């Protein structure tokens, strides 16, 4: 299982999802809700949640994609019960807190973080947005 906003989908996202897929048999991707993006990033996403979900679903590496929960974000984990949760190098999720919640929920998933970004100065949504707004 992998999580993300996936606004302005780019090669860095694809590399993250490919790394996640290598760690399991199937890849389920959770796409953040618009309200979650606003709360975490302090701004609305460029593409709405349905558009971002559709783009992620279209990727060959993705077996299934779903929208994140509107309330308790752990409910989707409890429902899918993944064997591995792969976090991106820049995701703010506290791994220790996540592991405690998994244990409390009875979900036996390993938590792995992708340590190395793929060309972060070029393939990062915030950098792409700065370039796009200058054009």
Secondary structure elements and pairings:
Elements: E1 2-4, H1 11-21, E2 28-31, H2 34-41, H3 49-57, E3 64-67, H4 75-80, E4 84-87, H5 95-105, E5 110-113, H6 125-134
Parallel strand pairs: 1-2, 2-3, 4-5
The figure for the number of domains is 1
Radius of gyration: 14 Å
Overall body shape:
globular
CATH architecture classification name: 3-Layer(aba) Sandwich
Structural class: alpha/beta
Q: Estimate what percentage of residues fall within beta strands.
A: 5-15%
Provide mean pLDDT, rounded: 88
- Give the number of helices: 6
Distance between the termini: 36 Å
Overall helicity? 40-55%
- What is the assigned CATH homologous superfamily? HUPs
- In total, the number of strands is 5
Low-confidence stretches: none
Oligomer: single chain
Outline the biggest β-sheet. 3 strands, parallel
Q: Briefly, what CATH class?
A: Alpha Beta
Order of helices and strands: EHEHHEHEHEH
The strand order across the widest sheet is 1-2-3
CATH topology: Rossmann fold
Give short descriptive properties of this protein.
alpha/beta, Rossmann fold, three-stranded parallel beta sheet, 6 helices
Verbal overview:
By secondary structure, the protein is α/β, with parallel strands linked by helices. It has one domain (2-134): Rossmann fold (3-Layer(aba) Sandwich). It contains 6 helices and 5 strands. The strands form 2 sheets. A 3-stranded parallel beta sheet has the order 1-2-3, with helices on one face. A two-stranded parallel ribbon has the order 4-5. Strand 1 (2-4), helix 1 (11-21) and strand 2 (28-31) form a beta-alpha-beta unit. The longest helix has 11 residues, at 11-21. It is globular, with a radius of gyration of 14 Å. The termini are far apart.
